[in-house]
């Protein structure tokens, strides 16, 4: 990445610091309707008295500012990005082009249905594909992200139980779960109950039996879980939860491991979300937008958000008449242009392509895991799925070098760090997800660098503890940022 | 898949060598821990894979069956607006360094995303007059819903949310859905003459009200008396949540000036494509004292080990990945790339441009309204409006719009869809992109029907 070349260069100023009164970067056609004072149209009391302090810069200032900034940023297109549970796979360029076609990007959401038949057909087909991949009967494309899907799914749980006259108040969540799971459960008005993992990394069946009861609305499960392990007792887990009237929620964050291999709807899950920005190759955008479609098996289907897209022959329409729906979870029909990219991806891969995606993702992760295990502690010694978890405890105990230090040292070598200190149940955790779009050579290079860093931790621990050394900025003081929050620029 | 796939670098030889290194005979062995009874044994029924050329043709065919705002002159708004997007915006958001990154968990190699968020937060604060802003929410509707939840969390014991019926209908629906979790009761205040009457609001508030949500301009395009409405909310001890249009803030008083506790809204007008409704951008800003109650990511300035300025995600103890069930919100992925688009847009428009685009919208909307009135389409509501206004139609609104469509004009949104009492009304939006000629064509088309 460019950062090494850029080290030592003058930091990029804030755009506000480049401002010069009177300079502009915009143009608009001259007003072609009769001009009049604003005060004639609007009451004086409603008017803005002082202009906002927006920058006064030229167009070239703006272009150079953001281009120069972009040169100090890591992304999938620059290098390996093994952030566990984030599935930082390659984002096909053609999909970006497709999403910017005027016939998709320039369509108003309230255009009459006869003017948007292509968009509705795309949504309709996408729903069918996700139903097939997930083994569910219908899918809403409305949720904007994974956590938004969780909120949608759990509200569907509530509605389902309420329809049965049941007031179930608790949601079971394994201790390996993503933080969004308990947060979503709370937003949906549930209490959370943590289920411990067993020594194999799966749900502790005895604990589950003990914790499951008539007041439990359901269990949220990521499978494979955040340890990268498929729950071998999946069928038993489902039986325990279902036998007492509970429901199963599938967190699709790790679905890259299972396409064409196991379908959540077949394995006992009642509601499923997909992360199109993970499994289906849409870019992560520096934090979003994502898309978190939610699927349901037949008994939960009536509760999906409205509208869905229905077809009458070859005519597509938005179906709002869904009396038992939980309602809407956002405006319009979801993050449509993200759905477009995921749709293009599925059409590019086909069934055999998606199966191979999962096979290669799993093969890559296992290959990498075995190489990493030569130098790092492997807490669960079994085949992983699409990601693996190793621990830096040896380096910490023997040399005082923490996982954080090694993660920062990786940045010096041009790699993004894996997810660290998560899942919480593994001390000094490194969660590594290579994805299927990385070659064996890249995996070898990364494993070689990790081995080298393990060597540095032994021979020169201070070098690692002081990392990174070559990045555009050195280790940043996060405690200072939290203690004295400076969250916006202010004019001098 | 014998021939390989363009997105999958492993060759047959690579796979063989990797399996050998693992001491395995086949990939299948890696899946042996999936119990047979949950294993999918069929082949997914999906269309055959396409080459890039086939894909491009297929997508072009689908896209070709949609109308676009380039092809049709559109007077449709109602929460998504056809503003001009300068070329620079997509050139910057199209830089892969930005769009192939994720949440900046490793700040030392993510300074672009972090600095851009910091600049975005500043721009939103300047525009809204608020003290703090987060890095984005999914859209205006979810931002408003989260504002209600945060208000109820902050003002302990208050579980009632009061909204104007002139808050976007889909925002109200979203709020009603979100309200079910924490058990918030949502009450709607009917409008009078297209705006929310402050005295009616006052009567609807009590000591259990957590917040009042008012949209400015409201769904009908009308300008609300935010000073009086805010005063009423505060008199009852409730938060005042202003759901504002960002373009309107070029001329309208910012929420910070009328004492809003939270300012939220839909950022799509700031350089984000219509995209058949998404992805758009929710912005979320607050007073300083609510900083630690904010949902979502926040970037902050700090120093590196050499004392050099840099940016990090901060105040993360509010967030789900740290606090889990104690987080202020469950949001994780947000709309960062749309926030970048808004950042670039606001930098390009600058201090002068933001005012000019707002005043052009206002003046063009006023012109359109003045032409429609003598053509037989009086205002449904007499008060001042910004970029959008409702008119009563002397002929069925469906006929108006089908006639306009034949002339490649998409007329106003039919308000009867959400407001049965407004079956005869159309909501007409006029952005700076509409020319006088466009407006005159609209007026001629509608006027000819009388």
Describe this structure in words.
The complex is a heterodimer of chains A (492) and B (450). Chain A has 492 residues and is α/β, with parallel strands linked by helices. Chain A folds into three domains: 1-72, no CATH class; 95-348, Type I PLP-dependent aspartate aminotransferase-like (Major domain) (Aspartate Aminotransferase, domain 2); 358-479, Aspartate Aminotransferase, domain 1. Chain A contains 16 helices and twelve strands. Chain A has helices at residues 3-6, 38-41, 59-70, 93-99, 102-105, 117-134, 146-163, 180-187, 205-211, 234-243, 336-372, 393-399, 403-412, 440-459, 461-465, 478-483; strands at 138-140, 170-174, 191-195, 216-222, 247-251, 271-273, 294-296, 308-312, 315-319, 388-391, 419-420, 429-432. In chain A, strand 4 (216-222), helix 10 and strand 5 (247-251) form a beta-alpha-beta unit. In chain A, helix 6 packs parallel to helix 11 (336-372). Chain A is globular. The two termini of chain A are 35 Å apart. Mean pLDDT of chain A is 96; it is low at 1-5. Chain B has two domains: 73-84 and 351-447, Aspartate Aminotransferase, domain 1 (Alpha-Beta Complex), CATH 3.90.1150; 87-344, Aspartate Aminotransferase, domain 2, CATH 3.40.640.10. In chain B, helix 3 packs antiparallel against helix 11 (336-372), helix 5 (111-128) runs parallel beside helix 11 and helix 6 (140-154) crosses helix 7 (169-180). In chain B, strand 9 (299-303) and strand 10 form a beta hairpin. Chain B has helices at 12-22, 52-63, 87-93, 96-99, 111-128, 140-154, 169-180, 198-204, 226-235, 320-323, 336-372, 397-406, 436-447; strands at 73-74, 132-133, 160-164, 185-189, 209-216, 239-244, 262-266, 282-286, 299-303, 309-313, 388-392, 409-410, 413-414, 425-429. With 450 residues, chain B is of the alpha/beta class. Chain B has a seven-stranded mixed beta sheet with strand order 2-8-7-6-5-3-4, with helices on both faces. Chains A and B meet through helix 3, helix 4, helix 5, helix 6 and helix 7 of A and helix 1, helix 2, helix 3, helix 4 and helix 5 of B.
């Amino acid at each position: 990445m460019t950062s090494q070349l850029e080290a030592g260069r003058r930091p990029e100023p804030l755009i506000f610091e480049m401002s010069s009164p009177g300079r502009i970067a915009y143009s608009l056609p001259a007003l072609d309707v009769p001009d009049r004072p604003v005060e004639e149209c609007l009451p004086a009391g409603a008017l803005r008295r002082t202009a906002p302090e927006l920058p006064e810069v030229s167009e070239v200032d703006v272009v150079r500012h953001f281009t120069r900034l972009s040169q100090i940023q890591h992304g999938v297109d620059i290098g390996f990005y093994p952030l566990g549970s984030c599935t930082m796979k390659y984002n096909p360029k053609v999909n970006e082009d497709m999403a910017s076609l005027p016939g998709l990007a320039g369509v108003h959401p309230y255009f009459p249905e006869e003017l948007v038949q292509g968009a509705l057909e795309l949504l309709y087909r996408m729903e069918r594909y996700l139903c097939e991949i997930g083994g569910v009967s219908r899918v809403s494309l409305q949720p904007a992200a994974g956590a938004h899907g969780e909120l949608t799914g759990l509200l569907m749980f509530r509605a389902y139980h309420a329809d049965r006259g049941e007031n179930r108040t608790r949601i079971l969540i394994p201790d390996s779960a993503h933080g969004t799971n308990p947060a979503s459960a709370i937003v949906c008005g549930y209490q959370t109950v943590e289920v411990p993992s067993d020594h194999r990394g799966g749900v502790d069946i005895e604990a589950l039996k003990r914790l499951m009861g008539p007041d439990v609305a359901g269990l949220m499960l990521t499978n494979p879980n955040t340890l990268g392990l498929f729950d071998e007792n999946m069928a038993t887990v489902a039986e325990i939860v279902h036998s007492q009237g509970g429901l199963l929620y599938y967190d699709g964050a790790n679905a890259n491991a299972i396409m064409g291999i196991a379908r959540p709807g077949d394995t006992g899950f009642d509601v499923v979300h997909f992360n199109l920005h993970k499994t289906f190759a849409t870019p992560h955008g520096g934090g979003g937008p994502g898309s978190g479609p939610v699927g349901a098996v037949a008994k939960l289907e009536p509760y999906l958000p409205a509208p869905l897209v229905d077809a009458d022959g070859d005519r597509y329409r938005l179906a709002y008449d869904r009396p038992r729906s939980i309602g809407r979870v956002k405006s319009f029909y979801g993050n449509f242009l993200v759905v477009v990219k995921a749709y293009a991806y599925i059409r590019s891969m086909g069934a055999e392509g998606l199966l191979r995606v999962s096979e290669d993702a799993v093969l890559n992760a296992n290959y990498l895991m075995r190489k990493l295990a030569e130098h790092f502690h492997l807490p669960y010694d079994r085949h992983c799925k699409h990601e693996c978890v190793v621990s830096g405890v040896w380096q910490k105990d023997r040399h005082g070098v923490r996982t954080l230090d090694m993660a920062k040292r990786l940045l010096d070598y041009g790699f993004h760090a894996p997810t660290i200190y998560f899942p919480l149940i593994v001390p000094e955790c490194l969660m590594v997800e290579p994805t299927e779009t990385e070659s064996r050579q890249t995996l070898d290079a990364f494993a070689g660098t990790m081995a080298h860093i393990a060597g540095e931790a032994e021979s020169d621990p201070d070098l690692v503890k002081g990392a990174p050394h070559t990045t555009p900025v050195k280790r940043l003081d996060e405690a200072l940022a939290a203690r004295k929050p400076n969250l916006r620029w202010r004019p001098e | 898949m014998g021939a390989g796939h363009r997105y999958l670098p492993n060759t047959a030889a690579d796979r063989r060598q990797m399996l050998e290194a693992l001491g395995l005979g086949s990939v299948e062995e890696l899946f042996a821990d999936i119990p047979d009874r949950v294993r999918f044994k069929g082949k997914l029924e999906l269309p055959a894979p396409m080459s890039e050329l086939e894909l491009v043709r297929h997508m072009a065919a689908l896209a070709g069956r949609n109308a676009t705002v380039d092809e049709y002159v559109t007077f449709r708004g109602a929460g998504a607006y056809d503003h001009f997007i300068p070329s620079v915006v997509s050139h910057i958001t199209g830089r892969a360094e930005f769009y192939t990154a994720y949440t900046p968990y490793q700040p030392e190699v993510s300074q672009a995303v972090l600095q851009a968020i910091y600049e975005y937060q500043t721009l939103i604060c300047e525009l809204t007059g608020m003290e703090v802003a987060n890095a984005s929410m999914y859209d205006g509707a979810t931002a408003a819903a989260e504002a209600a939840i945060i208000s109820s969390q902050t003002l302990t014991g208050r579980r009632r949310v009061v909204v104007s019926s002139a808050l976007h209908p889909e925002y109200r629906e979203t709020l009603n859905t979100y309200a079910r979790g924490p058990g918030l009761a949502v009450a709607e205040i009917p409008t009078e003459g297209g705006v929310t009457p402050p005295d009616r609001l006052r009567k609807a508030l009590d000591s259990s009200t957590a917040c009042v949500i008012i949209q400015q301009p409201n769904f009908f395009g009308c300008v609300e008396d935010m000073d009086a409405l805010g005063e009423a909310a505060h008199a009852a001890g409730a938060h005042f949540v202003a759901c504002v249009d960002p373009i309107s803030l070029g001329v309208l008083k910012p929420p910070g000036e009328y004492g809003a506790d939270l300012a939220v809204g839909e950022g799509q007008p700031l350089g984000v494509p219509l995209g058949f409704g998404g992805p758009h951008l929710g912005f979320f800003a607050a007073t300083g004292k609510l900083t630690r109650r904010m949902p979502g990511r926040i970037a902050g300035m700090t120093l590196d080990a050499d004392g050099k300025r840099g940016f990090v995600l901060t105040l993360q103890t509010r967030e789900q990945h740290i606090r889990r069930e104690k987080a202020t919100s469950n949001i994780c992925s947000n709309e960062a790339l749309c926030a970048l688009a808004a950042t670039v847009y606001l930098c390009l428009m600058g201090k002068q441009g933001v005012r000019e685009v707002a005043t052009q919208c206002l003046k063009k909307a006023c012109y359109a309204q003045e032409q429609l009135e003598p053509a037989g389409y009086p205002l449904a509501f007499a008060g001042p409006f910004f970029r959008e206004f409702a008119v009563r139609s002397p002929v069925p609104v469906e006929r108006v719009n089908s006639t306009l469509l034949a002339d490649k004009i998409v007329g106003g949104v039919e308000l009867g869809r959400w407001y049965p009492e407004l079956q005869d009304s159309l909501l007409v939006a006029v952005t700076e992109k509409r020319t006088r000629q466009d407006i005159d064509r609209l007026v001629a088309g509608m006027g000819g029907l009388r």
